[in-house]
Amino acid sequence: MIKAGIVGGTGYTGVELLRLLAGHAQVELQVITSRSEVGMSVANMFPNLRGKVALSFSEPDMDALAQCDVVFYATPHGVAMKGAGELLARGIKVIDLGADFRIRDIPTWEQWYGMTHTAPELAAEAVYGLPEVNREAIKQARLIACPGCYPTAVQLGFMPLLEQGLVDKNHLIADAKSGVSGAGRKASVGTLMCEAAESMKAYAVSGHRHLPEIRQGLVQMAGADVALTFVPHLTPMIRGIHATLYATLSHDVDLQALYEQRYEAEPFVDVMPAGAHPETRSVKGANQCRIAIHRPGGGDTVVVLSVIDNLVKGAAGQALQNMNILFGLDERAGLETIALLP
Questions:
Q1: What is the number of helices (H) and of strands (E) in the chain?
Q2: CATH dotted code for 2-125
Q3: Can you name the residues that pair with 56 across neighbouring β-strands?
Q4: How confident is the model over 60-112, as pLDDT tens digits?
């Protein structure tokens, strides 16, 4: 059994991680921390876990966490970089669901996150946990930086085109919509039901924290610099991301065959039939990315539709997928949940 601990389990990604780990046949949950909820039963805060998780929240304690085989950080940025080093020194694997180790260029990270990075040497070591790109490196990792939700949907959508050099790299557009759970489990006027319902709005058009992370991944895929316009939107749903991606083709190619071949062996990427329109509800609660490719009017514009559940493939599910790879388990273990409908 893999002994797992979670630092910061009271947010939406934390409870999703708890749900998935509790259903994993080869995982034993050892500890879950929360400075604000010490002593509270997990099941009292999250009644869906009643009878499944018997733990209570505890103060973060390195000695307790060091009894685990793997520790997940489901915390805001700035937390994991302060504790990961000690855990790694004690032989514990660390999987960070936050942003501390995603961006390799430290000045860029500090610019976008507004603080000094206290562990740049760990950022240099961390493996970016997008399995469809870095599976082999993940197998050997000590520290994994799980991708953000927008970056997952956007990178998986653009990947086959950039890897094969089929589009103009200087004119990429990602128009992405997210449910309100992407803003986290906190009191915020903008995500109140009366504020977010029956409305949709763009935000952070001048620059979003996920932009440098997305660009970093796209540059790796393309082997050259890229220019990306990324516009996120808040939509009146709880969970889900829909990314509509635009690029200009520089070569004529069978796009359907290209995507089907690239993702043929990927258990959590579903390339839909030609002309399909994937829905966010088709991935709700599942560790799945569904993709469809369009070429309007047969012209040189390609439109890729990419949908994920931001809390699963965009966060906790991807973290568990990384854990499975890291420990040599079936990559699908604990992640074969079918999406919820309606």
A1: 12, 13
A2: 3.40.50.720
A3: 41
A4: 999 999 999 999 999 999 999 999 999 999 999 999 999 999 999 999 999 99
Residue 232's Cβ-side half-sphere holds a number of Cα atoms within 13 Å equal to 22
Annotation says 149 is catalytic: yes
Would you give the DSSP letter of residue 103? -
Residue located via tokens 């399909």: 276
Q: Which amino acid is at 328?
A: G
Indicate the class that CATH gives domain 150-310. Answer: alpha beta
Give 321's pLDDT tier (boundaries 50, 70, 90).
very high
- pTM above threshold 0.90: yes
Q: Reduced to 3 states, what is the DSSP secondary structure of residue 23? A: coil
Residues written for the chain? 342
Q: Give the model confidence (pLDDT) of 297-314 as tens digits.
A: 999 999 999 999 999 999
Strand order through the sheet with 27-33 = 27-33, 2-7, 70-73, 93-96, 143-145, 127-128
Return the biggest CA–CA distance within the chain.
Answer: 62
Alpha helices in the chain (DSSP H): 12-22, 42-45, 62-65, 80-89, 106-113, 120-125, 131-139, 149-163, 193-196, 210-222, 255-262, 317-326
The domain locations on the chain are: 2-125, 150-310
In contact, 127 and 191? CB cutoff 8 Å: no
- CA quadruple 257, 260, 261, 262: dihedral, nearest 10: 120
What CA–CA distances, in Å, run from 310 to 17, 38, 83? 12, 27, 25
Distance separating alpha carbons of residues 217 and 16, to the nearest angstrom: 25
